[in-house]
Design goal:
The structure holds two protein chains of two kinds. By secondary structure, chain A is of the alpha+beta class. In chain A, about 40% of the residues lie in helices and about 30% in strands. Among the domains of chain B are: about 1-115, no CATH class; about 125-220, Calcium-transporting ATPase, cytoplasmic transduction domain A, CATH 2.70.150.10; about 335-450, Calcium-transporting ATPase, cytoplasmic domain N. The chains are: A alpha+beta, B alpha+beta. The interface between A and B is medium-sized, with 19 and 29 residues.
Amino acid sequence: MKKSYKIDVDCASCADKMEQAAKATAGVRDAVVNFMTLKMSVEFDDGADHKAVMQDVLKACKRVESDCEIYL
Amino acid sequence: MNRKQKKMLARIFISAALLIVLNFIPVTGAARFACYMAPYLIIGYDILIKAGKGIAHRQVTDENFLMAVATVGAIALALYEGSGDYTEAIAVMLFYQIGEWFQSYAVGKSRRNISELMDIRPDYANIESGGKLERVDPDEVAVGTVIVVQPGEKVPIDGVVVEGESSLNTAALTGESLPRDVKAGDEIISGCINMTGVLKIRTAKEFGESTVSRILDLVENASSRKSRSEAFISRFARIYTPAVCAAALALAVVPPLLRTLALGLSGDWETWIYRALTFLVASCPCALVISIPLSFFAGIGGASKAGVLVKGSNYLETLSRTRIVVFDKTGTLTKGVFEVSAIHHSPYGDAKLVEYAALAESASSHPISRSLQAAYGGEIDRGRVSGIHEISGQGVTATVDGHAVAAGNDKLMDSLGVKFIECHSVGTIIHMAIDGEYAGHIVISDVEKPTAREAVRELKNCGVRETVMLTGDTRSVAGRVARDLGIDRVYSELLPADKVEKVEELIKSKDAGAKLAFVGDGINDAPVLSRADIGIAMGAMGSDAAIEAADVVLMDDDPMKIPKAIKISRKCLRIVYENIVFAIGVKLACLVLVALGLASMWLAIFADVGVMIIAVLNAIRALFVSKL
């Protein structure tokens, strides 16, 4: 399953950090952060609960970049 | 400017003003330190906090960390030496923040620019109820509803005009500035702007399936597919920052140690630590990290303004390396509509012959009979025709105005025992016999698009080495079209599956760096579109399969858009490479100067911010494509 979320982040390298963090989260097959359109598209593993996974993704992103936001 | 940017601007001004004022106040010692800390903390507190958090999370290699270490180090050095020169550290922080502010402003601005450019999202649809117009959410309009579009409004949903006449501005969709006229019965696509008259439209699709929604969806998701250059830059940044940190550390420690241990000189630690800190300032990779995605974003935005939808930065990159362009003939280079192109040997006059042919064929919906009816132009009076008899693979016989009319190929003439004259024209030949006498023949052929020849020539000017045409048509037709248009190679009489095979062959035989683009009109060439290095679908408005399968979608069917798309991609990639070379070049030069002690921290921060601003401005250039 694939879903797209609106995000807010200040710099391109921060966006890249968010992407790395999201990719490393359990339940996420792949994630792409688009700094220009401020969007994160996440592909979930089969059977993963996307709501719970996104909470983890948000936490992981906050850890690497405290100034970021994902609108879930 | 958003709230964050305003706040930052205020901090920049306050801190700069404080710094200037402090220059004229002769305070010394601890008081001086306290005074100077005020502008430093005002401008840099968030950086320090982020750097601190980074250290706590063991993420110590970002720009915040670089800046924090460099400025705190410079202040510590000033304290240790007792020089009281804190200005440098504050200036570094100040310029860094000015650079960041500019970057965020420029990105925000181009984000808005591009979304304005694609401002085709209709906010409402008008439904007539009880004599009054009611505005509703386009999402709630069911298929088959009649909606009203007034002059100046956007067509919200695809449909068919049931009432009214008007001109449509399709510029936002196709980049074509010439208005298009529509009348009752015409199909209409969403996103156009109604200019002159009130139109009533019966919707044919739901809003979500309409052209405008599909296009917006495509554009919004476009830059999610990253190009190799972008991937290279983010990989580069990930390795680069730790590497420069290590280099700075070595610069601070190794030379002084060498001096004391090997050469017996004094360590001169302050000089080398200062150089190491300057090195950190100079090394910040912001210019690259921001300008590359920004260039692609602007390039994709500029392309959509010109009616070329590119589905991702990676496709923009591939498009710029196109060396072979393979065309599908029908619908791409030719109009795909058959027109009467010649009438020969008619004893009754050309108009009469076409009229008889059109009437005889009036029961058929075959493209040939439609083109005959179009050439006739007038209303078909079915009352004049009787006894229509279709002979499959040959043609028709019928009685028109009391005359026995036969229209068909040479086989039909043979079976009727009519002696006919061979035709040397290329196309479909319809022989006519009236009352058993040969009455000449009509030539029907596909017409080349008016700009096709120029488009093929223009392609050669933008790096394309070879043009190839694939077609299911006969050899003679294909050969003539190719000669007319200046196409290098032709493969004719292909079935749809053969086209995939041919494209695969061509891909195998070319060199690795060259890319092959396939251009089709999306009608049963979806497999070829997806097999080519880059699939370009043209005139694809409304053809869902083509929009899915293609990598680049041309919104109208003008072949000139193909060289245009390639030129846009080449400009964008040129800007990307300029920025990569420029930013890395200046960075490396700076780092060398700093390591040799030839550059101060001032120069380092100017170089950093300056390169970033120039690279961002250069990136925005990719947005301007109208002159290409």
